[in-house]
From TrEMBL:
GO terms for molecular function: 3-dehydroquinate synthase activity. One of its GO terms (biological process) is aromatic amino acid family biosynthetic process. The gene is aroB. This is 3-dehydroquinate synthase. Pfam families: DHQ_synthase, DHQS_C. It comes from Polyangium jinanense. Its EC number is 4.2.3.4.
Amino acid sequence: MIVHVRASASSFEYPVCFTSDVFSPMNRDLLHLIVRREPDVRHRVAAIVDRGALAAQPELNLHIERYARCHNDVLDLVAPPIVQGGGESMKDDATLPARLQAYVHALELDRRSVLLVVGGASLLDLVGFAASMVQSAPRVVRVPTTTLAQAGPAVLPKSAINAFGAKDFLCTFRPPYAVVCDRRFVETQKTREKVFGLVQAVRAALLWDAELFGWIVSHAHRLASGERDAVAELLQQSAALHADLAATAPHEDIYGPEGPLAFGAWSADRIELHTERRIRQGEALAVGIALDTTLGALHGTNTEAEREAIHRLLERLGLRLWHDTLGNVDSEGRLLLLDGLSERSFGRSPRVPLLQGIGNGVTPRELREDVLREAITRLAHRDAHRAHAFALA
């Protein structure tokens, strides 16, 4: 006997809120999001805070506790906030998910409880992944604290950790219960860190919104200096684009090796790995975008004029388009970047998603090593020319 299981396509809905001073007792945005389905129930809440966010705001945990006390008729903070280190290297630690799951178990958090995660994209990934593996998984409320996270990753339903030397190899697609983007956290970031994170927004504009790309070009000086209102506006626009993507495209189309989020990222991931995570994710992504738009010009998917406009924008934002690891080769002279493509292609001929012109998404193209070498050579020459110009200035 054969029994056929037919399930309708899964659907999900969750709010993304932009606010300021989220843990001010007078700000009820977070409160409303937590209690929106059961307004008359006292909700059990546990909080995990990124060490970097706490360093920027030393009283952050106290503010979370104060917020819960002020609204204790519907919020029950079951334990003091715990602090966890952030950064991409944290996602390499295979023991952390189990430790976080043990914490959820010890606090007896269930599917009506709330796990509040306050931190950067890596911590949001780790906690979301760990929580999603629990049978009665608590509701995860994300409070992203960096431009990198607020620009897109915090809005998407995916949570992932690294494994077997591959970035985000293990992942789940249990969406958050809510996302709260507080501009005050971003304002505590150093200007360079802000700009590195904004590369996510630049990529979103390149993929889906030519008008937004033009806006970024027009406001590049304000963005490069970390000007508050310009950064806030760009983050909201980028988050909205990522939210639309999550709502309308199947997971395999979004996250696959030939999908839009692989644009610029396939090489950026290798750069991060080859530098042992010493380079920031946004820095590496800028180099990856520069490489893929150069490849696009060689393949004819984007024009030379578009490539130049994109490269000039990245440079105006103070970003480098080159990293020495691009030229790394193995003992036989083969580019190590191709290893990243092989991992993503799972044995098939390596293909990369290339820009179909600004704002028009990507199209996959098979990549030959000689074309990749040519693209890398062009970036190296551009970087050397700029370095020489700076030396003469």
